[in-house]
Prior knowledge:
Oligomer: single chain
Largest sheet: 5 strands, parallel
CATH superfamily of the largest domain: P-loop containing nucleotide triphosphate hydrolases
Strand content: 15-25%
Distance between the termini: 24 Å
CATH topology of the largest domain: Rossmann fold
Amino acid sequence: xxxxxxxxxxxxxxxxxxxxxxxxxxxxxxxxxxxxxxxxxxxxxxxxxxxxxxxxxxxxxxxxxxxxxxxxxxxxxxxxxxxxxxxxxxxxxxxxxxxxxxxxxxxxxxxxxxxxxxxxxxxxxxxxxxxxxxxxxxxxxxxxxxxxxxxxxxxxxxxxxxxxxxxxxxxxxxxxxxxxxxxxxxxxxxxxxxxxxxxxxxxxxxxxxxxxxxxxxxxxxxxxxxxxxxxxxxxxxxxxxxxxxxxxxxxxxxxxxxxxxxxxxxxxxxxxxxxxxxxxxxxxxxxxxxxxxxxxxxxxxxxxxxxxxxxxxxxxxxxxxxxxxxxxxxxxxxxxxxxxxxxxxxxxxxxxxxxxxxxxxxxxxxxxxxxxxxxxxxxxxxxxxxxxxxxxxxxxxxxxxxxxxxxxxxxxxxxxxxxxxxxxxxxxxxxxxxxxxxxxxxxxxxxxxxxxxxxxxxxxxxxxxxxxxxxxx
Length: 473
């Protein structure tokens, strides 16, 4: 078994395997994050029963695929089930047969239903049948572990996690699989024979995010820039159409979600709900609210509060590196190749924004570097309300121990050096924040720089220096 990272997820599976009660576990997360790989590798591809849904197929085809799985696992019935109730009835027969496969250590029956949302086609009885299967059979079998997963995160959340009818309180555990951290990316890339510096690994994360499938596409014979060119810019590139496929796999009607994402990408700090309504020229209502919630649940967007503002004035910010990369370079196509973008103004602007997203996705690592892992904190952004000031701080770490870390995030090719102009800007931001927030806490200017800080007569303004290496902790 070769699984990179995923310690939390494997621990949850281990608990379920050792449990002495029936377990119904839902694993969800965005497309390509490694849900199926994790389960198959963890169980060495050995199940009491395994079936997968089919993308964009109707009920008849879904039942046909399920029927093929039933026969593969020992069903003697050669006639295709007429509905899902009959299909799950045949599954019961397999699970109660004397020769059914059991997990060898704890003697568990392990059933894995992959891409479950695809099985639930329009006007089918799938959800009712699954509910009946669990309530009438599964929930009383102490040796049963039922694992379901799917990329259609909104379906999993709406129908399994939040459902107040059939599935309410049925799940015994849920695992939300998130993209890799930069440290886990490093482990995967090294395992694949990729030779990259840590600065290059950070830039790789800025391009592809922590999505294992994308990272596995990298050719170890090529540089990072060459890989980006081949995968994203060539007509035959494996990720040429991934942006559209990504949202189509998650949402039944992805157009509105994509419109929200593209609106949020216009400013790096994001937008309020009210500004989205005005920009998208839509009415305020539940549709936008649900879209924002679903985008947040899928990890594309973070909701945060501007320091000193009420929760009603929350901002929504795009924090998915791969989506940002696509919108900046592949949707606009200012140039036809990645090599043409390198060192251009748009490339440098993107690097600054993308590195900030890396930092926002690694706040636990930043806290560890600051020695405050055990300190309760809240993370904010802040923008001056003073007319003409323009002062803005993209990350504030407000700590229970009486300190606020005012974070400046910088990505540069070499060691970062604070110039006189930058020193004066930092002084101005600090002064404006102290004046407007009226905080009594100590304020520490914290520089997060991929390649560290060069000491000069202006560097003393910084209390804490966090390097790219610290993000790998």
